[in-house]
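step 4 of 6: structure.
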Amino acid sequence: VRRFLATVPASQRRKVPVVVGSGALALLEDDLAATAAGRLVVVVSDSNVAPLHGEPLVGRLRGRGLRCELVAFPAGEAHKTRETKASIEDALAALGADRSTLLLALGGGVTGDLAGFVAATWLRGIDVVQAPTSLLAMADAALGGKTGVDLPEGKNLVGAFHQPAALYADLDVLSTLPEMEYRNGFAEIVKSAVVGDAAAFARLERDTAALRRRRGAPLERALVACLRLKARVVGKDERESGLRMILNFGHTAAHAVEAASGYAVPHGEAVAIGMAAEARLAIDAVGFPAADALRLERLLEAFGLPRRAPEGLPRDRMLAAMARDKKNVRGEVRCALPREIGRMGHAGEIATGVEAERLLAALRGD
Ligand SMILES: NC(=O)c1ccc[n+]([C@@H]2O[C@H](COP(=O)([O-])OP(=O)(O)OC[C@H]3O[C@@H](n4cnc5c(N)ncnc54)[C@H](O)[C@@H]3O)[C@@H](O)[C@H]2O)c1
């Protein structure tokens, strides 16, 4: 298990203790037993994770004398809504939650975003500890402070920045994660290496087989690299006014694929397709080496991830999604393109204007 401090925004003058590895939840229990006596601890989980990991964790925390309750909601992105947020708040009210109450988000990115958003607004802000249980949440969602819910009109339309008080990523809980969810998590791990860590990229190439078998040591290394990079980027630019945009590599195209497929293409697959497309585009646009684009495609393939958009996605829906991208400036579609594997552009040149038609062609593999 590795413990380190992630520097998050200076505005909040806070360092987030991050624990990654097998047995991280046992350390969480020790830490809470030492620091949370007398506080109400509310574990928030979805309906898949609650019986597998939530109930046992609550039992263990109670066994250590803590006042601990479990609040569960129905699993799935479809439930990352204002209604679910309200139901969690109703539960907090019924439990008599106060300023000292601590929320423990135990689950995937949906749980982290929801519980984080509840924590951001309950009594104008209480502590949330992130305990991610999906690979995607461990690699990406749990650190960085973005929280929120979806509206029918779009994902993450309502939310807040609320940094976690601490993060515990226990690799042991990944044993129950479905294979498809596990595979999808690698898209963000690969993305992180492309935008800022060439050595991590080379390790991913070397360790692919072990990583796919969920081997602890390489997985711990990969996640630590990812979280350190994210902490470094978010520490400099919490609100995504510049540098943080680099973490959006692949995402302009990915959002187009997700939206045009009616979210039938899972996020990780869409990010893999999006990265492959934007890397193709980056060859001409910013001189991304063709050899690096090839390495990226090979690595995605080795993780069992797709590199081309599925046939038959409606063009107009893809273009409409690109037109809504948050990085656009005055109607121009922009992509966050790295200059080579492990290196992003300088501030101000991170998001590059691209022709939407060219991006569509890149999604087809041209
Ligand atoms: N806040 C951020 O910075 C950020 C970053 C990336 C993604 N996200 C958000 O994260 C969400 C996607 O995250 P996700 O893929 O983890 O989705 P998710 O939370 O829905 O989890 C995926 C599925 O895996 C199940 N699951 C999770 N852990 C499990 C375990 N250990 N064992 C068995 N089943 C388990 C869940 O119940 C769910 O069915 C999206 O809503 C996205 O917007 C947020």
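step 5 of 6: annotate
 - The longest strand covers residues 154-161.
 - The chain has a mean pLDDT of 94.
step 6 of 6: archive
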